[in-house]
Specification:
Blueprint (H helix, E strand, L loop, with lengths): L1 H40 L6 H8 L2 H16 L7 H13 L1 H4 L1 H24 L4 H19 L9 H7 L8 H19 L1 H11 L1 H6 L4 H27 L10 H11 L11 H21 L4 H28 L1
């Protein structure tokens, strides 16, 4: 009887492991399918130069997706990150170039303000969606005041960094691997990273263990601000100029990248590697793939939404099959 009962238990455990593996592999599978489709439509794009061109704007998207991931990790949502990236580009193309010390202090102040927002949301128990939506107008207004029309110029050193051409592997891929590695080590391999994730999954247990939820919330928002600053700097280094509206689409892209990468809105369930894969998938599907398919620009946003829905439907289907068993 013992061996007979152990066999079904073992098969259920292996099936559960298989489902978890499939869910974890969905971001990589989605990216692989997009790359395969591009290779089929335009084989010449699968080259050093092709990947550099296709993934050039994926670097700021990956960074902003990581920023959103930190906020989602504590069961919040940042609707201001796109406008914030636009403001950072304006600061980088003006103050950071003309008055480097003042520009650096301004960017550090932005990170500190993000931490203060996290603390305010926690202390006053405010809905993050409302607070960050309001801040989006603040960032947008400040960006317009600083740079009323597109212009400015990226610092020479920033252009040089974003223009690096390493041998064999395109720079965007190297940057994506570095972003994923830093995020994975910080969030998944450090003890405080476990606390940050635990605050979203079981805040009461984290607080009873002696950790300050106020510090946790402020830290997560500060990390979001830091990666948002890096995203804006990377974007202006690529485009060489700034625009107050350049980051408006990044809010939805960042949310989609986190969810596509296996993150969930509740429970502190996030994956830094999955977030970067999701960002790369959205970046490649947003322009190269849909352009090669001759889909009009007006329909490309809808096509991106369809890709996200298909992946989410596959994730739900895997989970539902597991629940039925």
């Amino acid at each position: 009887m013992t061996s007979a009962s152990a066999a079904p238990a073992s098969s259920r455990a292996s099936a559960a492991d298989l489902r978890r593996g499939l869910r974890a592999a969905l971001p990589a599978l989605s990216l692989a399918l997009v790359i395969a489709a591009i290779a089929w439509l335009n084989p010449r794009a699968i080259s050093y130069f092709g990947f550099t061109l296709m993934l050039n704007l994926a670097i700021p998207i990956a960074l902003v997706t990581m920023a959103q991931m930190f906020v989602i990790a504590c069961n919040d949502l940042d609707l201001s990150i796109g406008a914030f990236v636009g403001f950072v580009t304006c600061v980088s193309a003006t103050w950071l170039r003309d008055e480097p010390w003042f520009g650096a202090l301004a960017l550090l102040g932005c990170v500190a303000l993000y931490a203060a927002l996290g603390a305010l949301i926690y202390l006053r128990n405010l809905p993050s969606i409302v607070v960050t939506l309001g801040m989006s107008f603040v960032w947008q207004g400040l960006a317009i005041l600083l740079l009323p029309k597109p212009g400015g110029r990226a610092p020479v050193w920033l252009q040089a960094i974003m223009g690096v051409k390493p041998p064999f592997i395109p720079f965007p891929i190297v940057a994506a691997l570095l972003i994923a590695a830093v995020g994975w080590f910080g969030v998944m391999r450090t003890s405080y990273g476990a606390v940050l994730r635990g605050a979203g999954g079981n805040a009461i247990a984290i607080e009873r263990a002696g950790w300050s939820l106020l510090k946790v919330k402020a830290t997560l928002f500060a990390l979001a601000g830091a990666f948002g600053v890096l995203s804006g700097m990377a974007l202006v280094g690529i485009t060489t100029s700034a625009d107050a509206n350049i980051g408006n689409g990044y809010t939805l892209l960042s949310i989609a990248g986190v969810i596509l990468g296996g993150g969930e809105f509740v429970g502190g369930k996030v994956s830094p590697i999955g977030a970067v894969l999701g960002a790369l998938t959205m970046a490649m599907a947003a322009s190269p793939l849909l352009t090669f398919m001759n889909i009009p620009p007006d329909w490309q946003v809808a096509a991106n939404g369809a890709i996200l829905i298909i992946v989410l439907a596959a994730r739900v289907l895997i989970s539902r099959n597991g629940a039925e068993r």
